[in-house]
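Notes to self after the Tuesday call (sharing in case useful).
The group wants a holo model before anyone commits to mutagenesis around the pocket. I volunteered. Ligand is flavin-adenine dinucleotide. Logging inputs and output together so the record is complete.
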Amino acid sequence: MTTVAIIGGGFSGTMTAVNLARLSSQPVRIVVVNHRHPVGRGVAYGTPRAEHLLNVAARNMSAVPDHPDHFVDWLRTRVEYASLPEPQIRETYAPRRVYGDYLRSLLFNYVDPLDDHHPAHIELIDGEAVDVIPEPGGGATVSIEDGCSVLADRVLLATGNQPPSGIGSTGESFAHPAYVAEPWSNWHQQLPEPGSDIIVLGTGLSMVDVFLTLGELNWSGNIIAISRNGMIPQAHFRGIEYPNFLPPDPEQLNLQQWVTLMEQHCEQLRRIGENPGIIVDRLRPHTQRIWRSLSLDEKQAFLRQYAPRWNVIRHRIAQPIHQSLTEALTSSRLRVVRGSITELSDCQQNVGVNVKCLDGVDRTFEGSLVINCTGPNAGFSQSTLPLFQNLLQRGLIRPDELDMGIDVGPDFTVTGRDGENSSFLFAIGPLMKGTLWETTAVPELRGRPCASPKSCSKL
Ligand SMILES: Cc1cc2nc3c(=O)[nH]c(=O)nc-3n(C[C@H](O)[C@H](O)[C@H](O)COP(=O)(O)OP(=O)(O)OC[C@H]3O[C@@H](n4cnc5c(N)ncnc54)[C@H](O)[C@@H]3O)c2cc1C
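Result:
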């Protein structure tokens, strides 16, 4: 029987396992090795908090590519959604923990299935995969931290984003009771007195999560959010049909031509009172192909000049959440500081955050709680995770040309140090960010390997 080992049990690993199990006509043993976040949920859907909502409407969150309404239909089976009218349920932004329930319900259909005759089954291992050792006869052994191992014919890396990197000279080693290195921990169980400030490093979606939780807990102190660009996510809006934007051959345009074209259309949309974000939405189904067609210089220029703006338009939030943020900004309960965070320091009970502000002045802000929401570590070659250190050392993987993830071919096979595509090692999800750019959200991820019988045969 073929064995497929999947390292990582978030959305990507879970849905690859489910699709492999449901579409396979041959006997297959699927072993999902996962740690740190609950299997089936991963980072995004592992939050236990009800105020953390999906940032994509239910109608576009089906995990099953051949059933576009699969999530909406599943939501209807829950009592709190059962009586919602169709248009309302489709547009709802469900709690992410509910989406985690959905993914787990799919996964556990195939873990020890009742039907013994089903050709595929999924096994779960709770542990950190630390190495993948090629076997002379083909396939590889996945080593797990506790000494266990899995012998597999194929191995899929579905490890998600790198953890956030540390800040300043002390990097990841900075420790202080009032410093939270990752926003996914239970920091809300030790809130400071409301008279003090909470500082959030970053102004993106994780900052929004923190803001919502503080509101939910009625914490009435002030929040300072710091980032280089100071941009907070934009709100979802009702778009219009805008059919004449895309050129017939999008891959033929270079970056400068794209910028000119987009500026023209943004201007046109503004003139007619519509949101220019429509352009980013229209591009979304084509972004991966366009990204691949750009040169390395163009990709680097895009990351330097346009990516922050692209991200705030692309990763939007539900309107009521945006409204609360705007109100907090207006009342100064939330303050956004623009600047580069250079250092963290120990200020007795508080943590000091040194910032080179936009006006060139160095300032220190003191927080009685400081939460790092700066997002995943971007330099892949600097990864401190044992799995990647070992794979890099073995030459089984190499960083992509932008050092955002690993080099992966169009069929998800991993490219080794020698430039050869692996016969057994595959990758999916945020690890492919440098290769595909858009590869982190469900609408892109659900079309990945094993989404169809044809693509399933690759694993
Ligand atoms: C806070 C947040 C909210 C989001 N909200 C949305 C949303 O509303 N809609 C949307 O479409 N997208 C959303 N996203 C994007 C999200 O990244 C994807 O939807 C998806 O969850 C990514 O899943 P993944 O499996 O690739 O990665 P992850 O969810 O990160 O899962 C990877 C798993 O692998 C484990 N792992 C890593 N290394 C090892 C190892 N060596 N051994 C064993 N296990 C390992 C990790 O601990 C983790 O459990 C959100 C992302 C975040 C961070």
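Two things stood out.
The chain has a mean pLDDT of 91.
The CA atoms of residues 191 and 242 lie 47 Å apart.
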